[in-house]
Amino acid sequence: MPYKDTILPEFDMEMDSTRRTLERVPDDKFSWQPHEKSGTLGWMATHVATIPHWAKITMEQDSLDLSAAGGSDRVPPKPANRKELLEVFDKNRAEARAALANASDADYAKPWALLMGGEELFREPRAAVLRRMVLNHLIHHRGQLTMYFRLLNVPVPALYGPSADEQKF
Predict the structure, then answer these.
(1) How far apart are the C-alpha atoms of 84 and 82, rounded to whole Å?
(2) pTM for this one?
């Protein structure tokens, strides 16, 4: 069985759950933060919405330097409301899924590196990067986002079963 046949169903499930979560981000709370050391709700939601883009980067580049010499030409999106946030997410999701679906087993096995200022932080097969740095990273921050929701009394969506806000029994 091709590797993409194992990761695409998981990717789709996590993206569906992520979209359900992002659909609940309140427009009037983008600047709210739970603690002075925490990011704002808008920052956290945008981070969650942009993590799928890392799947595309992983499959289309051999590495990513988070602090390249001369600076980066990448400007992260700054959505101002939920509509713009969902547009960012939907674009990233579609591009990432296409990159995953078009990849061969050899592509998934190819090494990929994360760099900081030219220094290699790690190098792993793309399949491992997708699980750890894309899906697991997304799940982690989506969980943080649901805690922001709880603190703001925003109903938490069901993700891996019913949430306390979506009990059916």
Answers:
(1) 5
(2) 0.93
pLDDT in tens, the chain (169 residues): 999 999 999 999 999 999 999 999 999 999 999 999 999 999 999 999 999 999 999 999 999 998 876 555 667 889 999 999 999 999 999 999 999 999 999 999 999 999 999 999 999 999 999 999 999 999 999 999 999 999 999 999 999 999 989 877 6
Compute the half-sphere exposure of residue 120: CA atoms within 13 Å on the CB side of its CA.
Answer: 8
Domain that holds residue 8: 4-72+93-151
Helices (H) and strands (E) in the chain, counts: 6, 3
DSSP assignments along 77-95, one per residue: ---SSHHHHHHHHHHHHHH
Q: Would residue 157 count as lying in a domain?
A: no
Instruction: Say which CATH number the domain at 142 has.
Output: 1.20.120.450
CA 78 to chain centre: 15
The encoded tokens of residue 45 equal 């939601």
Give me the sheet containing 119-125, strands edge to edge: 63-65, 111-116, 119-125
Using the structure block, give the residue that is written with the tokens 């891996």.
160
In terms of residues, how long is the chain?
Answer: 169
Side chain identity at 158, as an amino acid letter?
Answer: A
Q: Are 39 and 47 in contact (CB under 8 A)?
A: yes
> Does residue 102 fall inside a structural domain?
yes
